[in-house]
């Protein structure tokens, strides 16, 4: 039904003294006459995002739907790059984000003001079915209106957990980092496990980690190879850069 391409792989980490990395997952789904992006990343990802869209032979104008898991800057701001798309997000999330005063938080206030009056904004309720095969599931905690999406109709269903479950460690430990309400996040993790286990083979695509599925023992196994690194100028020569592979532990 849908061909799925994870254009940008989420990364399960944070920087030590420069705030959020914001390396979040962007997934492209094509089929049923629609071209759908689930989350659209941060400003910094734009060059790579553009490259990956081009490699997938997907013109920005052809995107019919941008489906946002929540309002944080690292998942939402690039909705502006898709002029013909409906923008889907939770009603609870938009109401909360719009009512939050400007502050030292991960909300992109000007983009949210724009989105609130966007002519193609589509607000979703808990358990709502929308687009072919999609349902929205309210999973609060990380933010009050985080939505997790389940897509059925392909041979295997897919669960997009956004930041309600950012990575494998959160799914396995049943605890979350960076949550506004730890108790709500715990209940949301239960709900996500329920969606994941509902049908064998279901893929989980989290907000900040590789795609996973459950192995025969019911443990999450990664699909694909992690790629992540940075390079820096520590030398006096501009041509000399130190590269740091951060795709795996150093030991
Ligand atoms: Zn977030």
TrEMBL record:
Cofactor(s) required for function per UniProt: Zn(2+)
InterPro entries xrefs: MBL_superfamily_lactonases (IPR051013), Metallo-B-lactamas (IPR001279), RibonucZ/Hydroxyglut_hydro (IPR036866)
Record domain Metallo-beta-lactamase: where: 23-208
Gene3D superfamilies reported in the protein's UniProt record: Ribonuclease Z/Hydroxyacylglutathione hydrolase-like
UniProt keywords, alphabetically: Hydrolase, Metal-binding, Zinc
Name of a matching Pfam family: Lactamase_B
Secretion signal span: none
Statement: the UniProt record of this protein carries the keyword Zinc: yes
Origin: domain of life: Bacteria
Similarity comment: Belongs to the metallo-beta-lactamase superfamily.
Protein name (record): MBL fold metallo-hydrolase
Species this chain originates from: Siccirubricoccus soli
Lineage: Bacteria, Pseudomonadati, Pseudomonadota, Alphaproteobacteria, Acetobacterales
